[in-house]
Specification:
By secondary structure, the chain is mostly helical. 69% of the residues lie in helices and 3% in strands. Strands 1-2 form a two-stranded antiparallel ribbon. It is elongated.
Length: 157
């Protein structure tokens, strides 16, 4: 009577589907050693689930088939899509959700540092340009005056 209750509890179906916990798996293995007829029951449940899967298949969406074929093609070409007519290899950069492209973490850090350094160099370029203009104005006002003095007194120079 205990064996019949155990079979009807659904633990065998959970085990076959991979949904059983570790404790349930251990318990089933122990019961299979005690009752060899459980082995035939496990095989029966496996065949029944397999038959149900093949008799009443649910067709997956077309997008899943395309994604699987794309991945197989990707792996066969060594990580790139190869066009037989050319020597070019194209790398797939489509993201999972279609809205963002993901890059490696180090590239993100590199671009952040590049952005900050470009702003620093821009600031320095503007600063030194203004300093140059200021110096040019200061020395520009003295140069004509010194130039005129040197022309009047050529021996003072």
């Amino acid at each position: 009577m205990e064996l019949k209750f155990y079979i009807e509890s659904g633990i065998i179906e959970s085990f076959v589907l991979g949904l059983a916990t570790d404790a349930e798996v251990e318990e089933l293995q122990h019961m299979r050693r005690l009752y060899p007829e459980l082995d035939t029951e496990v095989e029966y449940v496996e065949r029944r689930l397999e038959r149900a899967a093949f008799d009443e298949p649910a067709m997956p969406p077309k997008e899943i088939r395309d994604r699987i074929l794309q991945k197989v093609t990707w792996e066969q070409n060594g990580g790139g899509y190869a066009d037989p007519a050319s020597n070019y290899t194209f790398i797939n950069i489509q993201s999972k959700d279609g809205n963002h492209i993901t890059v490696h973490r180090w590239w993100k850090i590199f671009f952040i540092i590049f952005f900050i350094m470009s702003k620093v160099f821009l600031f320095l370029a503007i600063y030194y340009y203004l300093k140059y203009q200021q110096t040019k104005e200061q020395h520009g006002s003295y140069l004509p005056h010194q130039y005129h003095q040197e022309q009047r007194h050529p021996n003072l120079g």
